Amino acid sequence: MPSAYHPEQIEQDVYALWQSGGYFRAGRDTSKPPFSIVLPPPNVTGSLHLGHAWNNTLQDIIIRFKRMSGYDVLWLPGTDHAGIATQTRVEKTLREEEGITRHQLGREKFVERVWAWKQRYGGVITDQIRRLGASCDWSRERFTMDEGLSRTVREVFVRLYEKGLIYRGNRIINWCPRCETALSDIEVEHREVAGTLYRVRYPRTDGQGDVVVATTRPETMFGDVAVAVHPADARYQALVGKTVRLPLTDREIPVIADEYVDPEFGTGCVKITPAHDPNDFEVGMRHQLDMPQCIDSEGRMTALAGAYQGLTREEARHRVVEDLERQGYLVQREEITHAVGHCSRCDTVVEPLLSLQWFVRMQPLAEPALAAARDGRLRFVPERFTKVFEHWLENVKDWCISRQLWWGHRIPAWYCDACGEITVARTDPDRCAHCGSDRIHQEEDVLDTWFSSALWPFSTMGWPEQTPDLARYYPTNTLVTGYDILFFWVARMVFMALEFTGEVPFRDVVLHGLVRAADGRKMSKSLGNGVDPLDVIDKYGADALRFTLATGTTPGGDQRFQWERVEHARHFINKIWNASRFVLMNLPEGFEPQPLETLPLDLADQWILQRFAETVARVTEHLERYDFGEAGRALYDFAWDEFCDWYIEFAKHPLYHGDDQAKIRARTVLLTVLDGLLRLLHPFIPFVTERLWQYLPVAREVLAVQAWPKPTYPANGEAAVTRMRVVMEAVQRVRNIRAEYGVAPGKAITCTLRCDDETSLALFRETQDYIRRLIGAERIDLKLGGEAPAKAVSAVVSGATLDVPLADLVDLAAEVERLRKEEQRLVQEVERCQKKLANEQFVSKAPAHIVEAERAKLTDYEQRLAAVQERIRALEA
RNA sequence: GCGGCUGUAGCUCAGAGGGAGAGCACCACCUUGACACGGUGGGGGCCACAGGUUCGAUUCCUGUCAGCCGCACCA
User: Fold this and answer.
1) How far is CA A16 from CA A130, A524, A702, in A?
2) Is the ipTM of this complex over 0.90?
3) CA A502, CA A456: separation in Å to the nearest integer?
């Protein structure tokens, strides 16, 4: 075994070992209770980023924990076809490599190309997930465009349509002129940007002056069909019903009254452009106004804009403002900041556009989802997300599901050229269901990618077929995902599942945040501050990355990525490696551990076994609550501080100087704790723990399927912890003396241990071999009471005083000074305890064990204070 | 406007109703028979501010200030 851990040498082999044994396959033992998670499917064309790495690490921790805890686990992986992203990607390749557009290629050929791309690159991200160590059941891998999943999508669409929950309608939608497709509300990111509020004069046709409207989008004026004022606005009441002339055109439009207008804002007069503004659209509907479109799907001005036709929105705005100004219509410019919608995919300014699209009627679907959140069938971790979830569903608008793309599930609707009716069917029809005509053609649009993602928990298990997997593993137990897709994905899965399976798709929703750059900013391509998880794995190993991400987890929170933390995680793993090496080096060939209860455990053994049992309990509890950070930190502390720094050091005495029985005892305890520790650590750092565990004499099969430890408390464990605390303090005190007096580490000292009573004497007699080794003493003189030796430096602990004779090194004045400080500290402690105990309220109202503990502390401090004071007197005499 | 999060050591962040923690950084010492990716010792914090609840608050409640994030509106 090398003296340092080299992840690159083992990770691939270990993963292959797991794979070849089929240990990740669900259903290996169906007598166990099932536990299932579906992996949030990453974009098939994407590559792993730190967010995925985090998300996958957390899921794998749960999955491995549950697998070891006796569940038949299913972790179902897969990828998402990611409509816009994938299409854009392939279009880019076509453009760069062949200089052609998708239109030149035609729909069918283009879609073939996308499939070819998927075949070639679709495995990249799943391979990266494997490198992380994810224990997915790859035999059940799915893709949202698979035949089976496509059938689910189709079935769902048809049923929703038949139920009247899907409709086609002319609505204002968010349109991305660059992607040339509709977007749903949540695909639009609103950002505050600097803009200008223009005040424009619209002359009254009766010659009685003007109406001044305020607008940030003067270029939409060609789509104006009215000017609206508030019905109660005294300034304008006389105006309602009059008409005004639209500048730069020869059109006249009416002034109408509508409550939507805020009299306080701008001039209190609003131009109404129903085809290009959602609010204006509502006004238009109420007043049955025309809805002419002055901007087209590429973001250019239409013929309606007259001389401005063909200009982009931006160019048109510029020119319109210029012309308005030149002709005296522009009254004022005001610099303002306002929120503008941007395409979440490409960042282009979104154009609200009146357009014929397909929608899902949300209200009937939202109600059951809300109920599930409210009555606790769905449980969010952390809990505060429940409110966010509910709030969104309470205010949700109909979901625009049609996308003007070629890559995706094509909407199964056919239009009849004869009667104009729509046929929606499970199998491709060849005639119109209404008139029987064969002159039908299929809808060109595809479905929003989130439509198929929304079905993921049950589509992947074969719904609508009643498959064995669906029966056994659905509903799933837990979903782990980032809070950023709570609405996009989680909410939609919930209402779809409730509608089609009658059950919530998962019980627990565990949400985590974002991985940010070290300075706290988001990682982004434009900032160039992204970190590739594969680079991290190459440098430090997958386990180090996993441990970093897991211990950096705080429920529902973001975390910053820092290389130093990864480095530190690797140090920790290296520590585990070397602790294991130590244990293994001290096990003779063919060593067989004895049952612990048959061995005469000493105090150190009882102590570490007790602490280990407590750690098992804590880690298990934290994992049950999905508190990954706390679980990881608890393991870190136990492994490094208690097992490595103390117990292994203790164990060296019996191992090197003990008799056979002492050796067997130490070896057994070391092996027991190491075995258990590797099990506890396995969900966090699976590669190295698997590798190490394989070396253990107790190894059979693989660690990945071994049993999760149960807390086994040794006899007298709690007492051992209390007693060992004193021993460890004694060691630390003497080490401190050595350091303060500059005693060379190699130089042996002697030490007198004066005990206050028999109890204390027994404790130190029992542990003096350990203490001697750890303080570098050649001899310890144990006594009951008595005087300190001459020229000694002293440390007082509970029940005893340690005196270290240091001859000439001792400066009496300095030593008195040192003891005075200690005295002062103890006086403060004594006073604090006394004050507390003197408070009758405290004594009568605080829990008995707290009061009792306080009394015990007081006694201890008083004794120690007396000992220190006595020592000072002796030195001063 | 509505909702939420955060404020703790120089930095990054845990924590919990009964004596302030970790890592990094810093200082000193150390190749001690697992590990220098290590060991030992050490310095460093009115736990943002003000009230309240409580025998006891850094922890719970309210408010203030500061930073951040959602959602809605913004002609």
Assistant:
1) 10, 34, 12
2) yes
3) 15
